Amino acid sequence: MVAKRIPGGAMAGDETKIKMMTVEETNAALPRVRLLLKSLRGKKAAILRIQAQMEIEEMTGADSQGQITPAARAAITKLMETFHFQSRQWEDQLEELFQTGAHLKDLDSGLVDFYSRRGSEVVFLCWKEGEADVRYWHPLQGGFQNRKPL
Questions:
Q1: How many CA atoms lie within 13 A of 126 on its CB side?
Q2: Residue 32, Cβ neighbours under 10 Å: how many?
Q3: What's the 3-state SS for the chain?
Q4: Across the strands, what pairs with 127?
Q5: How does pLDDT run across 79-98, given as a tens digit for each residue?
Q6: pLDDT-based confidence at 35, cuts 50/70/90?
Q7: What is the pTM of this model?
Q8: Phi-psi region for residue 143, left (φ > 0), alpha (ψ -120 to 50) or beta?
Q9: Distance (Å, whole) CA 150 – CA 132
Q10: Residue 137, exposed/middle/buried by CB under 10 A (0-12, 13-18, 19+)?
Q11: Please, are residues 33 and 129 in contact by the beta-carbon 8 Å criterion?
Q12: Domain chopping of the chain, boundaries
C-alpha cells in the first residue's frame, strides 16, 4: 500500500509504505525502539556539542584584523567533517527507527506513535519511554493528550 496523506504521517506523493502494527508487533519492536532512542539522544548531544565548538572557534579564532586564522579554519573544517558524519549517522538511526514502524513525536520525552487499526479506523498506538509496553491509543488528530487505554 502506497502512503496517502495521513495527518501526522507521510506526505502526498511519498512512496514510503505506512506500516500498520498490531499491539503485539509494537511491543515486540519496543526493545529496539528503546535502544534507538538512547542512541539518537547521544547523537543529538554530540551534534549540539560540535555546533557549539564551531561557534567558539569562529568567535575566538580571528586575528587582529578579524580574519579567521589558518589554525582556526583547520579546526572548523575538522569539526564540520565530524558534524556531517554525526548528522548522517543520526539520520540513518532515525530511518532505522522509522523502519521498525515507530514515528518519533518527541525525542526528549521518548514519545513514539505506531500506525494501527481499531476496527476500520486508522489510529496511533501511543507509547512513551518508561512505559513497559503499549497500553494506549489515540486518533490521528488527537495526540498524546487524547490517549485512551487499549
A1: 21
A2: 14
A3: CCCCCCCCCCCCCCCCCCCCCCHHHHHHHHHHHHHHHHHHHHHHHHHHHHHHHHHHHHHHCECCCCCECHHHHHHHHHHHHHHHHHHHHHHHHHHHHHHCCEEEEECCCCEEEEEEEECCEEEEEEEECCCCCCCEEEECCCCHHHCEEC
A4: 112
A5: 999 999 999 999 999 999 99
A6: very high
A7: 0.80
A8: left
A9: 14
A10: buried
A11: no
A12: 23-149
Q: At which residue does the C-alpha cell 499491539 appear? A: 23
Place of cell 488527537: 142
Single-letter amino acid, residue 75: A
Query: CA dist 131 to 9, 83, 96, 98, Å?
Result: 23, 33, 21, 19
Residue with cell 543520526: 90
Q: What single letter denotes the amino acid at residue 4?
A: K
